[in-house]
Here is the input.
Amino acid sequence: MSYFEDWTKHSETVENENDYKAYISKYYELEKNAYDAILTKYPDNEDLLNGKAVDLAEKLGFGKSEMEIFVGFLEGVSTSLTEEYDYKSVTDDSDVSLKIDYEKLYYNMRDAKAEWLYSLKSWNNVLTEEKMQEITKKYREDNIAHVEKIGRNDPCPCGSGKKYKKCCGKKEN
Here is the structure.
Protein backbone atom coordinates (compact mmCIF):
# COMPACT_ATOMS: atom_id res chain seq x y z
CA MET A 1 0.00 0.00 0.00
CA SER A 2 1.33 3.47 -0.88
CA TYR A 3 1.80 6.28 1.62
CA PHE A 4 -1.10 8.11 -0.02
CA GLU A 5 -3.40 5.09 0.30
CA ASP A 6 -2.38 4.74 3.96
CA TRP A 7 -3.03 8.44 4.52
CA THR A 8 -6.45 8.27 2.88
CA LYS A 9 -7.39 5.15 4.84
CA HIS A 10 -6.40 6.63 8.22
CA SER A 11 -7.70 10.15 7.61
CA GLU A 12 -11.07 9.20 6.13
CA THR A 13 -12.00 5.97 7.92
CA VAL A 14 -13.24 5.96 11.48
CA GLU A 15 -13.03 2.48 12.94
CA ASN A 16 -12.21 3.63 16.46
CA GLU A 17 -13.22 7.19 17.39
CA ASN A 18 -10.37 7.69 19.89
CA ASP A 19 -7.70 6.38 17.50
CA TYR A 20 -9.07 8.58 14.70
CA LYS A 21 -9.06 11.71 16.88
CA ALA A 22 -5.49 10.97 18.03
CA TYR A 23 -4.36 10.46 14.42
CA ILE A 24 -5.93 13.70 13.20
CA SER A 25 -4.59 15.62 16.22
CA LYS A 26 -1.11 14.31 15.46
CA TYR A 27 -1.53 15.41 11.82
CA TYR A 28 -2.61 18.92 12.84
CA GLU A 29 0.35 19.27 15.20
CA LEU A 30 2.88 18.05 12.62
CA GLU A 31 1.27 20.22 9.94
CA LYS A 32 1.45 23.29 12.15
CA ASN A 33 5.12 22.66 12.97
CA ALA A 34 5.97 22.08 9.30
CA TYR A 35 4.32 25.31 8.16
CA ASP A 36 5.92 27.20 11.03
CA ALA A 37 9.36 25.93 9.97
CA ILE A 38 8.75 26.87 6.32
CA LEU A 39 7.45 30.34 7.17
CA THR A 40 10.12 31.01 9.81
CA LYS A 41 12.96 30.31 7.34
CA TYR A 42 11.35 32.31 4.51
CA PRO A 43 12.83 33.39 2.10
CA ASP A 44 15.78 31.04 2.72
CA ASN A 45 13.62 27.92 3.01
CA GLU A 46 14.53 26.10 -0.21
CA ASP A 47 16.11 23.25 1.78
CA LEU A 48 12.68 22.59 3.33
CA LEU A 49 10.88 22.62 -0.02
CA ASN A 50 13.19 20.65 -2.33
CA GLY A 51 14.81 17.25 -1.99
CA LYS A 52 14.07 13.59 -1.39
CA ALA A 53 10.72 13.00 0.28
CA VAL A 54 12.13 11.13 3.27
CA ASP A 55 14.73 13.89 3.88
CA LEU A 56 12.17 16.71 3.63
CA ALA A 57 9.81 14.87 5.92
CA GLU A 58 12.53 14.60 8.53
CA LYS A 59 13.54 18.26 8.18
CA LEU A 60 9.90 19.28 8.63
CA GLY A 61 9.45 17.15 11.75
CA PHE A 62 7.79 14.06 10.29
CA GLY A 63 9.52 10.89 11.42
CA LYS A 64 10.16 7.91 9.14
CA SER A 65 7.10 6.23 10.64
CA GLU A 66 5.02 9.31 9.75
CA MET A 67 5.62 9.38 5.99
CA GLU A 68 1.92 8.84 5.30
CA ILE A 69 1.15 11.94 7.39
CA PHE A 70 3.83 13.83 5.44
CA VAL A 71 2.01 12.83 2.24
CA GLY A 72 -1.18 14.21 3.83
CA PHE A 73 0.72 17.46 4.37
CA LEU A 74 1.75 17.42 0.68
CA GLU A 75 -1.87 16.88 -0.31
CA GLY A 76 -2.92 19.85 1.81
CA VAL A 77 -0.30 22.24 0.44
CA SER A 78 -0.90 21.09 -3.17
CA THR A 79 -3.74 23.58 -3.73
CA SER A 80 -1.34 26.43 -2.95
CA LEU A 81 1.46 25.50 -5.32
CA THR A 82 2.37 27.37 -8.51
CA GLU A 83 3.23 24.06 -10.19
CA GLU A 84 1.36 20.77 -9.75
CA TYR A 85 3.02 18.07 -7.70
CA ASP A 86 2.03 14.38 -7.78
CA TYR A 87 1.77 13.66 -4.05
CA LYS A 88 -0.24 10.48 -4.65
CA SER A 89 2.77 8.48 -5.84
CA VAL A 90 5.36 9.70 -3.30
CA THR A 91 7.89 7.16 -2.07
CA ASP A 92 10.85 7.69 0.24
CA ASP A 93 13.12 8.42 -2.73
CA SER A 94 10.72 10.68 -4.64
CA ASP A 95 12.04 14.09 -5.56
CA VAL A 96 9.89 16.78 -4.02
CA SER A 97 9.87 20.36 -5.27
CA LEU A 98 7.29 22.66 -3.73
CA LYS A 99 6.82 26.10 -5.21
CA ILE A 100 4.41 27.75 -2.80
CA ASP A 101 2.24 30.74 -3.65
CA TYR A 102 2.20 32.17 -0.13
CA GLU A 103 -0.72 34.54 -0.70
CA LYS A 104 -2.79 31.65 -2.02
CA LEU A 105 -1.64 29.49 0.91
CA TYR A 106 -2.78 32.14 3.41
CA TYR A 107 -6.15 32.43 1.58
CA ASN A 108 -6.58 28.63 1.51
CA MET A 109 -5.81 28.39 5.22
CA ARG A 110 -8.55 30.95 5.81
CA ASP A 111 -10.87 28.98 3.56
CA ALA A 112 -10.12 25.78 5.50
CA LYS A 113 -10.87 27.66 8.72
CA ALA A 114 -7.46 26.52 9.97
CA GLU A 115 -6.92 29.28 12.52
CA TRP A 116 -4.00 27.37 14.04
CA LEU A 117 -2.24 27.86 10.68
CA TYR A 118 -3.20 31.31 9.43
CA SER A 119 -2.57 32.80 12.88
CA LEU A 120 1.04 31.58 13.08
CA LYS A 121 3.34 34.46 14.05
CA SER A 122 5.82 33.28 11.43
CA TRP A 123 3.48 34.64 8.72
CA ASN A 124 5.03 38.02 9.57
CA ASN A 125 8.24 36.79 7.87
CA VAL A 126 6.35 36.28 4.61
CA LEU A 127 3.44 38.73 4.36
CA THR A 128 2.95 42.23 5.70
CA GLU A 129 0.09 42.87 8.10
CA GLU A 130 -1.59 44.92 5.36
CA LYS A 131 -1.31 42.05 2.87
CA MET A 132 -2.79 39.57 5.36
CA GLN A 133 -5.68 41.98 6.01
CA GLU A 134 -6.20 42.39 2.26
CA ILE A 135 -6.32 38.61 1.73
CA THR A 136 -8.67 38.22 4.71
CA LYS A 137 -10.95 40.90 3.25
CA LYS A 138 -10.95 39.17 -0.15
CA TYR A 139 -11.75 35.83 1.52
CA ARG A 140 -14.69 37.38 3.36
CA GLU A 141 -15.98 39.10 0.22
CA ASP A 142 -15.72 35.85 -1.73
CA ASN A 143 -17.74 34.03 0.92
CA ILE A 144 -20.61 36.44 1.49
CA ALA A 145 -23.93 34.73 0.95
CA HIS A 146 -25.97 36.38 -1.78
CA VAL A 147 -29.71 35.91 -1.90
CA GLU A 148 -31.83 37.24 -4.69
CA LYS A 149 -35.29 38.23 -3.58
CA ILE A 150 -38.06 36.54 -5.50
CA GLY A 151 -40.71 38.90 -6.79
CA ARG A 152 -44.39 38.05 -6.39
CA ASN A 153 -44.87 37.75 -10.15
CA ASP A 154 -41.62 35.88 -10.84
CA PRO A 155 -41.76 32.20 -11.80
CA CYS A 156 -41.68 30.02 -8.70
CA PRO A 157 -38.19 28.61 -8.05
CA CYS A 158 -39.67 25.16 -7.32
CA GLY A 159 -40.13 24.70 -11.08
CA SER A 160 -43.92 24.35 -11.10
CA GLY A 161 -44.31 26.97 -13.83
CA LYS A 162 -46.70 28.99 -11.67
CA LYS A 163 -46.07 32.50 -10.44
CA TYR A 164 -44.44 32.61 -7.03
CA LYS A 165 -47.51 34.29 -5.48
CA LYS A 166 -49.75 31.42 -6.66
CA CYS A 167 -47.37 28.64 -5.57
CA CYS A 168 -44.74 28.61 -2.80
CA GLY A 169 -45.34 32.27 -1.96
CA LYS A 170 -49.00 31.71 -1.18
CA LYS A 171 -49.72 32.72 2.40
CA GLU A 172 -51.52 30.27 4.61
CA ASN A 173 -54.82 31.49 5.91
In short: The mean pLDDT is 94. The CA atoms of residues 35 and 117 lie 7 Å apart. The radius of gyration is 22 Å. Strands lie at 50-52, 95-97.
